[in-house]
């Protein structure tokens, strides 16, 4: 050190500090390190939770592990401690067991958001049976398909939905026993009883639970982490809804406290999660019910979404955090101002699909301090998180700086071959390649334990289509997502699009193949293809159908469009699956392999004044298809049409 002046050392130190600050500011090094440490601690907590669950890994054991004196469930002004929830669940499990629900059986759950649904899911789990959570928007053949996949001989429904079962009672696929459960959440006179055969229906009321609670004889069944916890139906990539087998390992994972909560317990000590998202979907089931149970927090359940009453529900429930999907936040911004908008205690909003143009506006209007955006899918292993990053992160699903990107061995973005609709492979090595910054790529996730991985029930073909092998070296295997994402030079990651035949609309995955099949079976259709198309100002992709009629006349076109909505509803197509746009064509172009040239169709304008080759275009106005004219197209372009 001799001969070096103090001022030189000070200047060098200052330059070093400034340089380090610049590098950190540019590459976010500290964030990467914090994230890596958080992942390590989360893994340790998850391991401890799995050990605590032992040989009883069902959702019922999660309930047993909670603080029994803490408020566990809130619903429309009523509340239950975890101990009280357990009493209700034990009684219901006893009744279900007496009615034939046994170990390993599948039970269809066709229920509106309610305490009844919460108790039912956990009670079925106690018996070692599997709840099959069915989308309550499904009707007719699509509903029967879901029952068939599960092989469910018993169905539990809420009274408001039993009316939709009347027309399918005689179908051989229909459950042999239907239980209507009402412990006070539904009007006792709302259920039309006259048409129900007594042998097929059982009604369970609060008094029945009270009686059953005095004679509990059935104990919980042993369940392993690799066993099926529940079925959640997803459209997957093509075809009818697939039954996704959620393993008990997934419940252990989503019930483990996340790093942000565990690292600052004083700030995040009161966990009250409000969700009006459907409980038959993973977002609500995993992020609200399971996480509340795992942290002994409170699950504040909303019956259904209401933009006008949403902020009041936050106040009434005393929620400290809420769940969203991107469209929900957009609807809330369009709702008239309410005195409750900033009168609540909710500081955290967690969910997925929040658009950048909505993000900050939503935070400002409702006083939300922290957005926790995550990228997941019901059956998927791939994951990205964008937690507590502030306004700069608006519209992003995650962050990977250079250090985290280097050490991450779980989720990758790989180059995508749009022609083959699959990850690109190097012609010399046969291996895939990680994308460069700014280059779109499909998200894939490493499979470490295939036994505990969620998969499709009794559908090996679909399961194999999700797995890609020999990705970076011989013998490795990854799970595909079908989603295209981009990682920018800054490290921020954003969702770009869905590949293949699936697109997302109104927070739902829509199978283009399923919708195409339904339209193709209608009288008068010669050819049809369905795809997603992006419309500015609307989240996700709007469904579009290109149709060629057997006799393509103006009169037939108008008659077909007039009946299309009702015809599809009769076939079990839900409102969110309905194509928002129709294009009647004389012929649908195909490529060299005789597949519909969807990319060509997607590139065509929907402007009615720019149509060529005799095409005519229509749009869905409520539940009626109308010809797309100049005014209606202007309304859609301005994002004012209620698609």
Automatic annotation (TrEMBL):
- Gene3D superfamilies, from UniProt? 3.30.300.30, N-terminal domain of ligase-like (3.40.50.12780)
Q: Which UniProt keywords apply?
A: Ligase
Output one GO MF annotation.
long-chain fatty acid-CoA ligase activity
Q: Which GO terms describe its cellular component?
A: cytoplasmic side of plasma membrane; lipid droplet; peroxisome
An example Gene Ontology biological process: long-chain fatty acid import into cell
- Pfam families in the record, alphabetically? AMP-binding
Q: Where is the AMP-dependent synthetase/ligase domain?
A: 75-382
What does the similarity note say? Belongs to the ATP-dependent AMP-binding enzyme family.
Name it: Bifunctional fatty acid transporter and acyl-CoA synthetase
Q: Which organism is it from?
A: Tothia fuscella
Lineage in the entry? Answer: Eukaryota, Fungi, Dikarya, Ascomycota, Pezizomycotina
């Amino acid at each position: 050190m001799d001969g070096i002046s103090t001022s030189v050392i000070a200047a060098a130190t200052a330059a070093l500090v400034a340089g380090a600050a610049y590098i950190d500011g540019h590459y976010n090094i500290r964030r990467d390190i914090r994230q890596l440490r958080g992942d390590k601690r989360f893994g340790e907590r998850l391991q401890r939770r799995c050990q605590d669950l032992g040989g009883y890994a069902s959702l019922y054991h999660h309930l047993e592990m909670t603080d029994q004196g803490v408020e566990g469930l809130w619903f429309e002004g009523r509340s239950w401690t975890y101990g009280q929830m357990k009493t209700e669940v034990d009684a219901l499990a006893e009744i279900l067991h007496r009615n034939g629900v046994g170990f390993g059986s599948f039970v269809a759950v066709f229920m509106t958001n309610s305490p009844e649904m919460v108790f039912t899911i956990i009670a079925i789990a106690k018996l070692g049976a599997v709840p099959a959570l069915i989308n309550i928007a499904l009707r007719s053949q699509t509903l029967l398909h879901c029952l068939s996949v599960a092989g469910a001989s018993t169905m539990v429904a809420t009274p408001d939905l039993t009316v939709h079962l009347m027309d399918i009672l005689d179908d051989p696929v229909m459950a042999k026993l239907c239980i209507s459960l009402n412990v006070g959440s539904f009007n006792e006179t709302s259920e039309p009883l006259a048409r129900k055969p007594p042998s097929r229906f059982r009604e369970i009321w609060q008094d029945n639970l009270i009686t059953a609670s005095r004679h509990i004889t059935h104990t919980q069944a042993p369940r392993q982490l690799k066993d099926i916890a529940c079925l959640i139906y997803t459209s997957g990539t093509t075809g009818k809804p697939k039954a996704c087998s959620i393993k008990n390992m997934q419940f252990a994972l989503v019930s483990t406290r996340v790093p942000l909560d565990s690292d600052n317990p004083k700030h995040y000590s009161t966990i009250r999660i409000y969700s009006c998202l459907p409980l038959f979907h993973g977002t609500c089931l995993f992020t609200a019910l399971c996480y509340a149970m795992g942290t002994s927090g409170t699950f504040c359940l909303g019956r259904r979404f209401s933009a006008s009453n949403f902020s009041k529900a936050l106040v009434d429930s005393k929620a400290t955090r809420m769940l969203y999907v991107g469209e929900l936040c957009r609807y809330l911004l369009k709702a008239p101002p309410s005195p409750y908008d900033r009168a609540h205690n909710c500081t955290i909003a967690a969910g997925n699909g929040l658009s950048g143009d909505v993000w900050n506006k939503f935070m400002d209007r409702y006083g939300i301090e922290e957005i926790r955006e995550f990228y997941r899918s019901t059956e998927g292993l791939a994951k990205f998180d964008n937690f507590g990053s502030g306004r700069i992160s608006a519209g992003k699903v995650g962050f990977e700086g250079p250090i985290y990107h280097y050490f991450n061995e779980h989720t990758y973005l790989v180059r995508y071959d749009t022609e083959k609709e699959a990850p690109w492979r190097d012609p010399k090595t046969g291996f895939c390649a990680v994308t460069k910054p700014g280059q779109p790529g499909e998200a894939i996730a490493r499979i470490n334990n295939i036994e505990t991985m969620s998969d499709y029930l009794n559908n090996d073909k679909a399961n194999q289509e999700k797995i890609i092998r020999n990705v970076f070296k011989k013998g490795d295997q990854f799970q595909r997502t079908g989603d295209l994402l981009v990682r920018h030079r800054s490290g921020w990651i954003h969702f770009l699009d869905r590949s293949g035949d699936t697109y997302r609309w109104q927070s739902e995955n829509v199978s283009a193949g399923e919708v195409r099949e339904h339209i193709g079976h209608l009288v008068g259709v010669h050819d049809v293809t369905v795809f997603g198309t992006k419309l500015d100002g609307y989240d996700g992709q709007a469904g579009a159908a290109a149709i060629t009629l057997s006799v393509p006349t103006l009169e037939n076109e108008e008659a077909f469009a007039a009946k299309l909505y009702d015809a599809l509803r009769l076939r079990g197509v839900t409102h969110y699956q309905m194509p928002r746009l129709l294009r009647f064509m004389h012929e649908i172009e195909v490529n060299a392999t005789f597949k519909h040239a969807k990319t060509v169709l997607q590139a065509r304008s929907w402007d009615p004044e720019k149509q060529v080759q005799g095409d005519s275009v229509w749009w869905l106005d409520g539940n009626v298809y109308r010809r797309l004219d100049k005014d209606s197209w202007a309304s859609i372009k301005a994002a004012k049409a209620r698609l």
